[in-house]
Amino acid sequence: MDIVTAQEMYERDRVAMEAAGLDGKMLMENAGRAVAYDFLRHIQKEHKIVVLIGAGNNGGDGFVIARTLLNLGYDVEAWQVVPDAKTTGDAEAHKRIFQASGHPYRLLKSSEDLNTSLCRADVCIDAMLGIGVKGRLREPYADIVRLCNERSIVRLAVDLPSGVPADEGEEDFEAFQAHYTSIIEAPKQSAFLQHTQPYYGEWSVVEIGLPPKQLPDHRRRLWGRADVERTLPGREAHSHKGSHGKGLVIGGSRLMPGSVAMTARAALRSGAGLIAVSTDSEAIPAISPYVQEATFVEGENGGRVPDLGGYDGIAVGMGLGRNSMQETVVERLVREKETPLLVDADGLYLLKGFLGELKNREVPTVLTPHPGEFAHLTGLSIQEILRAPFSYSKEFAEKHGVYLVLKGPSTIITGPDGEQRVDVSGNAGLAKGGSGDVLSGILLSMMMQTEHVMDALSNGCFLHGSTADLLVQDGHSKVDLLASDVIEGLSRTFRTFSS
């Protein structure tokens, strides 16, 4: 499923109309009816429904939605919140159809009149503003939105809540606080941003008939279960442990043995054939009982970097520490150009001095920062990162020739060629120490089993998050869930996929 900016959505509509000959009024009818039927899950026949109708395409959709619900026998009051002169084009055509169908509408003259209707209503449908909004709302929209947000009613939004910017980068806004949003055709970037996503509430996407083969590819998409089922590697009947990758995990210390232990165990639970661990010798007695299937290696003179020959992937940084000795470890791995490398946690902090050398690596390099670690790498503030994660991720990945996994409730995976994917699996139970270590192990394992790195990383993020979702649905809460629970829960997740 594609993720688009406002401009990209306009382009998709234009292509559909020009290349496929689809009429704008037809698309508006398709959109309104699809949204109306999507909303039926949230409304009941005894509900009193207010539909707020603005100008432009969203307003036209609103007339179609109101007409469809009225035709189905629902109690609907349609409010046009803009003057008649502002309803033009396809929206005006659907307004005429609405009237010709015998349905009256009310024209907003004062917010007091609307407030009286809202006080009687059970459901409010927001079809006021669309994807072109930027900045703070003007009147009468600002007043209407405040009235709606104050009411204890079910708030449903069409495409995106009025006032929410479609694109990243906007911070100063006020918006309709939806309980549920029916997104038309493709989710917009703001559905995945920390400061805008809450306004959507729950959401899903409705299809309106745009021809997929004719639409431009913006190389930014939502990665879901169907994608994982299509790309997740299977197991050949005659495969052996060497067929599924030999990985090296470098990290851990006497005071932090758990991080590297969880990474190694997660990698094995995710299907890696062999995992070796290079860690502080004093940490080995704590690690080995937890992950008995791993072996332990050390470098010359007890160093952390062993002979790197024969490994299919390396993960470094979990519990590594941040002193000058560990910085030498990261530097050597960056300059080793023959083995795919994943850098996480402490490794990301030690990496900053060697960013200029990443472009010289001839094999994939994967960085897995959370927003704070990414802020350290870029020199930006966390707030800047959260405001525009798509742009900053793309810029960084292309500049340094790396794969970037920017972790969060919506994890953005970016390739060195600028391709982006978003994984929204998982829940707040993952907001615990160790979750990132587990993800690194899963990603290392997927990298060694899948030729296409973007597929490996996208699938790894989905497996991690969906395992947490499964565990919270049965047996755990978001409060008690531990990172180690996710490791042991991976077997349940893999059983849900065909082998």
From TrEMBL:
<feature type="binding site">
    <location>
        <begin position="57"/>
        <end position="61"/>
    </location>
    <ligand>
        <name>(6S)-NADPHX</name>
    </ligand>
</feature>
<dbReference type="InterPro" id="IPR029056">
    <property type="entry name" value="Ribokinase-like"/>
</dbReference>
<feature type="binding site">
    <location>
        <position position="370"/>
    </location>
    <ligand>
        <name>(6S)-NADPHX</name>
    </ligand>
</feature>
<feature type="binding site">
    <location>
        <position position="436"/>
    </location>
    <ligand>
        <name>AMP</name>
    </ligand>
</feature>
<keyword id="KW-0630">Potassium</keyword>
<feature type="binding site">
    <location>
        <position position="162"/>
    </location>
    <ligand>
        <name>K(+)</name>
    </ligand>
</feature>
<keyword id="KW-0479">Metal-binding</keyword>
<feature type="binding site">
    <location>
        <position position="141"/>
    </location>
    <ligand>
        <name>(6S)-NADPHX</name>
    </ligand>
</feature>
<protein>
    <recommendedName>
        <fullName>Bifunctional NAD(P)H-hydrate repair enzyme</fullName>
        <ecNumber>4.2.1.136</ecNumber>
        <ecNumber>5.1.99.6</ecNumber>
    </recommendedName>
</protein>
<dbReference type="Pfam" id="PF01256">
    <property type="entry name" value="Carb_kinase"/>
</dbReference>
<feature type="binding site">
    <location>
        <position position="58"/>
    </location>
    <ligand>
        <name>K(+)</name>
    </ligand>
</feature>
<feature type="binding site">
    <location>
        <begin position="407"/>
        <end position="411"/>
    </location>
    <ligand>
        <name>AMP</name>
    </ligand>
</feature>
<feature type="domain" description="YjeF C-terminal">
    <location>
        <begin position="224"/>
        <end position="497"/>
    </location>
</feature>
<dbReference type="GO" id="GO:0110051">
    <property type="term" value="P:metabolite repair"/>
</dbReference>
<comment type="function">
    <text>Catalyzes the epimerization of the S- and R-forms of NAD(P)HX, a damaged form of NAD(P)H that is a result of enzymatic or heat-dependent hydration. This is a prerequisite for the S-specific NAD(P)H-hydrate dehydratase to allow the repair of both epimers of NAD(P)HX.</text>
</comment>
<dbReference type="InterPro" id="IPR036652">
    <property type="entry name" value="YjeF_N_dom_sf"/>
</dbReference>
<comment type="function">
    <text>Catalyzes the dehydration of the S-form of NAD(P)HX at the expense of ADP, which is converted to AMP. Together with NAD(P)HX epimerase, which catalyzes the epimerization of the S- and R-forms, the enzyme allows the repair of both epimers of NAD(P)HX, a damaged form of NAD(P)H that is a result of enzymatic or heat-dependent hydration.</text>
</comment>
<dbReference type="InterPro" id="IPR030677">
    <property type="entry name" value="Nnr"/>
</dbReference>
<dbReference type="InterPro" id="IPR004443">
    <property type="entry name" value="YjeF_N_dom"/>
</dbReference>
<keyword id="KW-0520">NAD</keyword>
<comment type="similarity">
    <text>In the C-terminal section; belongs to the NnrD/CARKD family.</text>
</comment>
<keyword id="KW-0067">ATP-binding</keyword>
<dbReference type="Pfam" id="PF03853">
    <property type="entry name" value="YjeF_N"/>
</dbReference>
<feature type="binding site">
    <location>
        <position position="319"/>
    </location>
    <ligand>
        <name>(6S)-NADPHX</name>
    </ligand>
</feature>
<keyword id="KW-0521">NADP</keyword>
<feature type="binding site">
    <location>
        <position position="126"/>
    </location>
    <ligand>
        <name>K(+)</name>
    </ligand>
</feature>
<keyword id="KW-0511">Multifunctional enzyme</keyword>
<dbReference type="GO" id="GO:0005524">
    <property type="term" value="F:ATP binding"/>
</dbReference>
<keyword id="KW-0456">Lyase</keyword>
<dbReference type="GO" id="GO:0052855">
    <property type="term" value="F:ADP-dependent NAD(P)H-hydrate dehydratase activity"/>
</dbReference>
<feature type="binding site">
    <location>
        <position position="437"/>
    </location>
    <ligand>
        <name>(6S)-NADPHX</name>
    </ligand>
</feature>
<dbReference type="GO" id="GO:0052856">
    <property type="term" value="F:NAD(P)HX epimerase activity"/>
</dbReference>
<dbReference type="InterPro" id="IPR017953">
    <property type="entry name" value="Carbohydrate_kinase_pred_CS"/>
</dbReference>
<keyword id="KW-0547">Nucleotide-binding</keyword>
<feature type="binding site">
    <location>
        <begin position="130"/>
        <end position="136"/>
    </location>
    <ligand>
        <name>(6S)-NADPHX</name>
    </ligand>
</feature>
<feature type="binding site">
    <location>
        <position position="159"/>
    </location>
    <ligand>
        <name>(6S)-NADPHX</name>
    </ligand>
</feature>
<dbReference type="GO" id="GO:0046872">
    <property type="term" value="F:metal ion binding"/>
</dbReference>
<keyword id="KW-0413">Isomerase</keyword>
<dbReference type="GO" id="GO:0046496">
    <property type="term" value="P:nicotinamide nucleotide metabolic process"/>
</dbReference>
<feature type="domain" description="YjeF N-terminal">
    <location>
        <begin position="9"/>
        <end position="216"/>
    </location>
</feature>
<comment type="similarity">
    <text>Belongs to the NnrD/CARKD family.</text>
</comment>
<dbReference type="InterPro" id="IPR000631">
    <property type="entry name" value="CARKD"/>
</dbReference>
